[in-house]
Design a protein that fits this description.
single chain; 449 residues; alpha/beta; Chloramphenicol Acetyltransferase; 2 domains; seven-stranded mixed beta sheet; six-stranded mixed beta sheet; 27% helix; 23% strand; globular
């Protein structure tokens, strides 16, 4: 039996309650990254170190403004595993920002570290950008600048003494984050967004990137084709056409610019009648890649920013007023790109700070996405797919089935293109995202877009 993404009660509620309409939802863009330091530092030195580094970052990214002390929070994690960081991302994508103010920027930085220790060498930096600043700030740019700043900061010559900053020992645990919704920050009035991740290991990520390169496509196109196939597999046959919205970073078209804003969008239409197997997925991925290239080059422009599922005969899961016709649940794929280490005379192994796994959620109402995948390759060479959806708009159990199908299809894609028949998905979660892998340097040369 195939699961319907919404029952009749949910479909009626969506048309009656604007808070349930994904087109009225504007979530935060959230990107977390694991940071590892080769030598431990005292816990009381953490905050001065972070503020010193941020003072350098804001000079590189003017859109962040100059006032940032109130935008930084320090919290404690139990163990820092991927599930806990994923929960942090889900929390942060649902916590809004105060009303516009010169003193309060539309971004915040959450620094998370493992509780119960007097010294630290690992932390998670979670960069959150509110909807008003999404077109001015790129999370990948921030993390690259932040790592470069950490490498420049000399702990022995901090601009302020540790006593001049709030004590990190007084930081709240994750349970304290939820209280912010009723506190200083304003939560969204819409339904909360849910979040789950799937991570490919370094070997499979490298194989997938090579396969994409040789097949004249990219990871964004492949994952969008996989998403389309997974949705068709979990929807009844009355759904014959699927339109998905893509959102990608400019990539090679803006190499000379130090700042990249992932704001280019396109629409791709998929038909159930074409059949969905390995060859057709690769063919569809190539077509999507061509569409995105035309969008970036200005050769073609999307006539709409709304992707949707349409039933034969015109009936739909719910109606929207934005496009003048009935439509269903939208789907989208966003690519944050591949992390590139800042230039340094030091070897990667000898650097004081390193970035590991990255986890990102970049859902946005601009493309009306009720189900969105955000792709990012971290410094550990692992591709992480973040699935986000609106609670109450689609059923969690149905999304689980779509994710399961997508995992299976990715495994088949790797095997069909000569990848080693190892375990495709990393079911185990490594403490603090694992060590920074040196297994495949090619990951840094083959970017997602």
């Amino acid at each position: 039996m195939l699961w319907s993404p919404m029952d009749e009660k949910g479909r009626r509620a969506t048309t009656e309650d604007p808070a349930l309409n994904p087109l009225s939802y504007s979530g935060n863009a959230v990107t977390s990254a694991y940071y590892h330091r080769s030598v431990t530092i005292p816990l009381e030195s953490l905050q001065p170190l972070i503020y010193n580094a941020l003072s350098r970052v804001v000079l590189q990214l003017p859109a962040m403004g100059t006032t940032f002390h109130h935008a930084v929070q320090f919290i404690q994690l139990r163990d820092g595993r991927d599930e806990e960081v994923g929960t942090l991302v889900e929390e942060q994508q649902n916590i809004g920002f105060p009303k516009p103010s010169e003193k309060v920027p539309f971004w915040r930085l959450i620094i998370a570290y493992q509780s119960g220790r007097s010294t630290i060498s690992d932390m998670v930096a979670c960069f959150v950008v509110g909807a008003p600043a999404r077109d001015q700030l790129c999370a990948m740019d921030f993390h690259q600048s932040f790592l470069a700043a950490l490498l420049l900061v000399n702990e022995a010559k901090l601009s302020k003494q540790p006593s001049q900053y709030p004590s990190a020992k007084d930081s709240k645990g994750m349970s304290g984050i939820s209280t912010l919704r009723q506190g200083k920050q304003t939560s969204h009035t819409q339904r909360p967004s849910r979040f789950k991740t799937v991570t490919l290991g370094t070997t499979d990520t490298a194989c997938l990137l090579v396969d994409c390169f040789t097949s004249k496509t990219n990871t964004t196109g492949v994952m969008q084709a996989v998403l389309a196939a997974s949705l068709f597999a979990n929807l009844t046959s009355e759904f014959s056409t699927l339109r998905t919205a893509g959102q990608i970073s400019p990539g090679d078209t803006m190499e000379k610019s130090p700042i990249r804003i992932p704001c280019s969008r396109y629409i791709a239409t998929h038909n159930r009648a074409q059949g969905w197997h390995m060859a057709s997925i690769w063919s569809e991925a190539r077509r999507i890649h061509t569409t995105s290239k035309d969008e970036l080059s200005g050769k073609a422009r999307s006539s709409s920013l709304i992707g949707f599922l349409r039933r034969e005969g015109g009936s739909s899961l719910f109606n929207t007023k934005d496009n003048g016709e009935t439509s269903g649940i939208s789907a989208a794929v966003s690519s944050m790109g591949s992390f590139q280490d800042p230039k340094s005379s030091e070897s990667q192994e000898g650097r004081e700070w390193q970035i590991g796994r990255m986890i990102s959620s970049n859902d946005s109402n601009e493309i009306g996405a009720a189900l969105c995948i955000t792709l990012v390759v971290g410094g550990d060479g692992c591709l992480t797919m973040g699935f986000s959806w609106l609670e109450g708009v689609v059923e969690d159990v149905w999304v689980d089935r779509v994710i399961f199908t997508a995992r299976r299809l990715i495994g088949e894609l790797l095997r069909s293109n000569g990848a080693t028949e190892t375990k495709t998905m990393t079911s185990e979660t490594l403490l603090w995202g694992g060590s920074v892998s040196r297994l495949v340097c090619i990951v840094r040369d083959l970017v997602l877009d």
